[in-house]
Design goal:
Order of helices and strands: EEHH
Number of helices: 2
Shape: globular
Distance between the termini: 25 Å
Oligomer: single chain
């Protein structure tokens, strides 16, 4: 919005939100890079918190093909 790019991810345990993180990237970043960065943060969160299962849901076909 307004030339700004950012993203977020949310973690749930037993249908309860346990963590959320939002971020802003530089003005010259793309939505694609924000989507990839959000996935990276979600993976890092799962690893750091020793989550036994992590379902990462996103709606970008281009990101899916890149991952």
């Amino acid at each position: 919005m307004n030339g700004q790019v950012g993203g977020a991810f949310v973690s749930f345990t037993n249908h309860t939100e346990t963590f959320n993180k939002s971020f802003r990237l530089s003005d010259n970043a793309t939505v694609y890079s924000a989507e990839l960065f959000a996935i990276k943060l979600a993976i890092m969160h799962a690893i750091e918190h020793h989550l036994p299962v992590a379902n990462i849901i996103y709606d970008s076909r281009s990101v899916l093909l890149a991952v």
